[in-house]
Design brief:
The protein is built from 10 helices and 8 strands. The chain has 334 residues and is of the alpha/beta class. The protein folds into 2 domains: 234 residues, no CATH class; 67 residues, no CATH class. The strands form 2 sheets. It has a 6-stranded mixed β-sheet. It is globular. It starts with 6 loop residues before the first helix and ends in a 28-residue tail after the last helix. The mean pLDDT is 89. It binds iron/sulfur cluster (SF4). The site of iron/sulfur cluster has 12 residues, from helix 2 and helix 9.
Length: 334
């Protein structure tokens, strides 16, 4: 069975192509736990439920094969809204947060907990690109699966300029962490009012609040689609050729300091060590210095790394002098 490429695989590989191998081969990662905590802290799960209330639809459940089958059946309807629709094009399989179909028109709505200001669209455009890329990937997959369709992609984000008129809105939601097999955990969010006789009235007031705003990705799609297509093609090649990377696929850099595949788990593969080889064991290491990434106008560490100079002793006192001639004192060794 060949590897599949999901939305989350795309996101990880889009950040660093080498991570695709580590994700698919289940190298230990600190990200799942971090992601989970971050989503909980930011209320990401509640935002997802809020989005479903504002854009009600049919929830597609079941394992991937069942979900794919159900989605195909449901999309035979002329007009339908689906939550978690499953779409496949070759090895690419995606679950779409909210998918609206009206005739041949499809709207993909990707829900994110990242807040933005609906009044500062241009300023925020570049900030949103990181969040938009996987929505653009989904648009590409849906267009491949339904070539006759006309697909538009959107982000649905909390709008920080909006205030709710509803008293105790936070109390509408109940979250429950479900432990699964191994490290698998899920958060089930329910809306406690959903069965109330006046719920439709409450839901309408929620829609009126406009706490979540749609951000049209047409422009960002135009600007980024060919890059996303090229990257996806390369991801599939790597999945199908046992991850035979070439030098141009990835580069070790100062960004590796925070790599989630740096886990040091005894008896388990360590992605960071695999990428860095013997440079991972140099001690003291340039990563032992706080804010090292800012040295030399943010460029010094990457320069040293590109020459394989990763010992702390490769730094000299001139490296700590700022442009104005003063010494930068924020750096200290771990
Ligand atoms: S160590 Fe660096 S190059 Fe390797 S996977 Fe992590 S971020 Fe990518």
């Amino acid at each position: 069975m060949p590897f599949t490429l999901s939305k989350s695989d795309f996101k990880v590989a889009d950040n660093c192509m080498k991570k695709l191998k580590y994700k698919k081969l289940h190298y230990p990662s600190s990200m799942e736990e971090n992601d989970f905590m971050k989503m909980l802290a930011e209320g990401g799960y509640v935002v997802g439920k809020l989005a479903q209330l504002v854009h009600p639809g049919i929830l597609v459940t079941g394992i991937t094969s069942e979900a794919l089958q159900k989605t195909t059946e449901l999309l035979k309807q002329e007009k339908v809204v689906l939550h978690e629709a499953a779409i496949q094009s070759g090895q690419k399989i995606i679950r779409i947060d909210i998918l609206k179909k009206d005739g041949s028109r499809f709207d993909i709505i990707e829900v994110k907990a990242k807040s933005f200001s609906g009044e500062e669209e241009n300023k925020e455009k570049m900030n949103l690109l990181e969040y938009a890329r996987d929505a653009i990937f989904q648009k590409m997959v849906l267009e491949e699966a339904y070539p006759e369709s006309n697909v538009k992609a959107w982000l649905l984000l909390p709008d920080k300029t909006k205030r709710t008129e509803i008293d105790g809105l936070a109390g509408w939601f109940k979250t429950e962490v479900q432990e699964g097999n191994g490290n698998f955990r899920n958060v089930n969010v329910t809306c406690i009012n959903e069965n109330d006789p006046d719920f439709e009235e409450k839901r309408q007031s929620l829609i009126k609040d406009g706490l979540l705003s749609l951000y049209d990705l047409t422009e960002l799609t135009k600007e980024n689609i060919s890059n996303i297509q090229d990257l996806t093609k390369r991801m599939l090649e790597l999945l199908n050729n046992e991850f035979q990377y070439s030098d141009s696929d990835y580069k070790i850099s100062k960004a590796c300091k925070g790599c989630e595949y740096k886990t040091n788990t005894p008896g388990e593969p360590d992605g960071y060590k695999e990428c860095w080889g013997k440079l991972a064991n140099v001690s003291p290491h340039i990563f032992d210095i706080y804010y090292g990434g800012t040295l030399g106008e943010n460029k010094l560490l990457n320069e040293l790394i590109s020459f394989g100079k990763v010992s702390l002793w490769n730094l000299n006192k001139n490296h700590f002098v700022k442009k104005d001639g003063t010494v930068n004192r924020q750096h200290k060794v771990d």
